[in-house]
Specification:
This is Intracellular proteinase. InterPro entries: C56_PfpI-like, Class_I_gatase-like, DJ-1/PfpI. The chain is built from six helices and eleven strands. The protein is an alpha/beta fold.
Length: 174
């Protein structure tokens, strides 16, 4: 198992994109990584866009960035809620400063935009937030997955295999 000993933090809030949360978590666990799910509150069942639940095992404020090797941000409508929490933005900025892997897919780019870490970076996302990413100074590419150093971004659920293949490579190097 390639990721044994790695610890990853995934954010959650209501209306996350079900596959964009669960596929990465399951793939990383399959490779031996420990994955925590942080939400606004610990022990809450958050419901995805298509009705699949996920329970947070800690709150955003309880997550200590120095304990994690990487962060994942799922898409859906959840990122618009997740980015409103200063604790989340602080975690993302810390991981970026430390050059730790940050994965984002679909609308998850909103969280990175609010954390102000995208200027001069190459990224992708759902085309629906392309203008938002370009307006903060990112170079947006129309590709299934884009790797820019420790930042791994992807567009939509059909791209999940490519996204996780690249994210796992980046996390292995860390």
């Amino acid at each position: 198992m390639r990721l044994t000993g790695k610890k990853v933090l995934s954010f959650i809030h209501h209306e996350f994109e079900d596959l964009e949360l669960w596929y990465p978590i399951l793939r990383l666990r399959e490779e031996g990584a420990e994955v925590d799910i942080a939400g606004e509150e610990a022990g809450v069942d958050y419901i995805g866009k298509y009705g699949v639940p996920a329970t947070s095992n800690l709150s955003y404020g309880e997550a200590l960035a120095k304990e994690y090797d990487a962060i994942l941000v799922p898409g859906g409508w959840a990122p618009d809620k997740i980015r409103r929490f200063p604790e989340v933005l602080k975690l993302v900025r810390y991981m970026d400063d430390q050059k730790k892997p940050i994965g984002q897919i679909c609308h998850a780019g909103w969280v990175l935009i609010s954390a102000n870490i995208l200027k001069g970076r190459k990224v992708t996302s759902t085309p629906g937030i392309k203008d938002d990413m370009v307006n903060v100074g990112a170079e947006w590419l129309d590709e299934p997955v884009v790797v820019d150093g420790h930042l791994v971004s992807s567009q939509r659920p059909p791209d999940l295999p490519d996204y996780l293949r690249e994210f796992i490579k980046v996390l292995e190097k860390d």
